Amino acid sequence: MMGHRTDVNQMMLSRAAFGHSRGDAGPAHHGWVGVNTWVVLDLAVALLGKIDIHGGEGLKYAVAAVVMAAQLGLAVFGFYAIRTFERWTVPATVLVMAVMTVLALTQADLHWTSGTAESGADKITAVTQLLTAIGIGRGISWVPYSADYSRFVPSRYSGRSVFWATALGMYVPTVWLAALAALAALAALGACLASAGKGGDPSELVISAFGGMALPILLLIMHGPVATNILNLYSCALAALSVGVRAARWKVTLVAGAVATAVLLAFMQSHSFAEAFDHWMTSILVWISPWAAVVLTEFFILGRGRLDVAQLYSDIGPAWRWRALVALAAGIIAAWSWQYGLVPLMQGPLARSMHHTDFSWLSGAVVAGGLHYLLTRHEQRAARSRPATAD
Questions:
Q1: I need a surface site. Which of 77, 194, 219, 246 has the fewest CB within 10 A?
Q2: pTM, whole model, 2 decimals?
Q3: Which residue from 4, 319, 24 is spatially nearest to 158, judged by alpha carbons?
Q4: Phi-psi category of 30—alpha, beta or left, where left has phi over 0 and alpha has psi -120 to 50?
Q5: What is the radius of gyration, based on Cα positions, of the chain?
Q6: 254 pLDDT exceeds 50?
Q7: What is the mean pLDDT of residues 127-144?
Q8: Alpha-carbon span 38 to 46, nearest angstrom
């Protein structure tokens, strides 16, 4: 909604809350490109093995190089290349997902009672940890990019249509893929294997359930990181330009690709998929939820959805707004206090004392957003008495 109303990318919009000349400097860099590529490598190599293409670790690095080159090439060409790629590839992936769903429901021996949580408290703990890591963490990590694309939507489309197209575009495929993953796990493992803890490898789950569809699934898997990462790389270049990097966008994109490659190589050396991914999600969620709460409170509550766009590009005004920074710091502390990650350092006192539940995203957002409102409401009332130049 912010991008659609203002035609401004998300990092520039964060200046309204955190400061006009330096307020976008904090969260302008991200490492999702390397992570997304790394997540699918084992699965891609395993599926290649199903069609008699083998190569061990060398094949894994070759696949990583091909995927990284493809997504860098598309990102360098920019928004219209990304839009064309998505327009032609998404229908094919939807078809593959539909076939996978039919196979999972008609040919798999499903076991719906393979969960290991026994008591009510254990179930609540499991739900909060999964909700935080995947349900909230993966979705909310896109907030720093949200306006980068909605700003391209013509003004003739209503805010309601923009909201629902975005919300359903995130919700439907995410829930669909999660259901497919659950079906694959249930079909491949059953109650005994799940309770024995032998089902942690995603590639084994998928191949066991959908082995005959190895090639189409491989195309779906390879499409996933490319389709996601070209958005990340494009947004990264915008973020860099927002913080004052004076270089051509394609050059910034290539540098971002080099950083992402370094992140990818680091993750490829990790010994545990689950542990490394949990560490990553923990590291970003603890600051993104408070940051998002401050930005949204500033725009929708304090500013009532109105913003002086010209002021975002002006050097007049504070470089930093200390009230927003205080709210952000308090929110980060609150998020950490109710976070329960695999890393002992990221296990807060509230989470430990409440049976390892994890509501870090909620505590961080409520504290940061609430404190920002209390600290800046008088300042914003004075600002609203002046006419805004953009709505």
A1: 246
A2: 0.71
A3: 4
A4: beta
A5: 22
A6: yes
A7: 77
A8: 14
